[in-house]
Amino acid sequence: MAITVGTDTYISVADANTYFTGRDGETTWGTYTDAEKENALRMACDYMEAEYTGRWIGGITSTDQSLSWPRYSVTDQDGRVYSGTEYPPRITDAQCELAYKAAAGNSLVPDLDAGEKSLIEKKTGPLTRKWSSGVDPEKRYLFVERLIAPFLTGSNSSVDLVRGL
After folding, report:
1. What do you get for the CA distance between the two ends of the chain, in Å?
2. Tens digits of per-residue pLDDT, 150-162?
3. DSSP letters of 61-82?
4. Domain-embedded: residue 61
């Protein structure tokens, strides 16, 4: 099933192909079929919707839209203002980066084993001590997070403050 920008994805396959032109992933991305690329873009968009909805700056342009983007009242860290019909390049770039990982067969949201992997146990004689290693077992995509940081609340971007009466 073909994807539709604004319904299933923030970016088309053709625009994703353009994104990868001249980048490290160009050769690998080019080996995937359009159907595989569409599926990867859909999974990447689903991940972004699940992970970041409620944290984006600005507001949705219509209560009927199915995705979090496009948005109104969005200004990036360099002062570029995005209308309610535009997708900031950093948002679509982030989706492409996630789609590349998904197309390669990587799960964007792996199932976790209730933190067992982060639990440390040490037995000394009859005593057993257990503690958490403090490591978050969830996968994080730092490059993607850095791309979209200016568009998230609580990041290094401006936030609209409204004073109460």
Report:
1. 51
2. 999 974 444 555 6
3. S-TT-SSS-SEESEE-TT--EE
4. yes
Domain containing 30 equals: 13-111+140-151
Reported confidence tier of residue 100, pLDDT bands at 50, 70, 90: very high
Size of the chain, expressed as the number of residues it contains? 165
pTM value is 0.79
98: which residues sit within 8 A by CB, 6+ positions away? 43, 44, 47, 48, 108, 141, 144
Count of structural domains within the chain: 1
CA distances from 85 to 5, 30, 38, 62, 140 (A): 11, 29, 22, 11, 29
Q: Per the structure block, which two tokens stand in for 155?
A: 């990041």
In angstroms, the Cα distances linking 109 to 29, 112, 137 are 21, 9, 11
DSSP 93-143: HHHHHHHHHHHTT--SS----TTGGGEEEEEETTEEEEEE-S---S---HH
Query: What's the one-letter identity of residue 7?
Result: T
Question: Is 4 part of any domain?
Answer: no
CA 106 – CA 135 distance, rounded (Å): 21
Written as one letter, the residue type at 125 is G
Are β-strands 81-82 and 119-124 bridged in parallel, bridged antiparallel, or unpaired?
Answer: unpaired
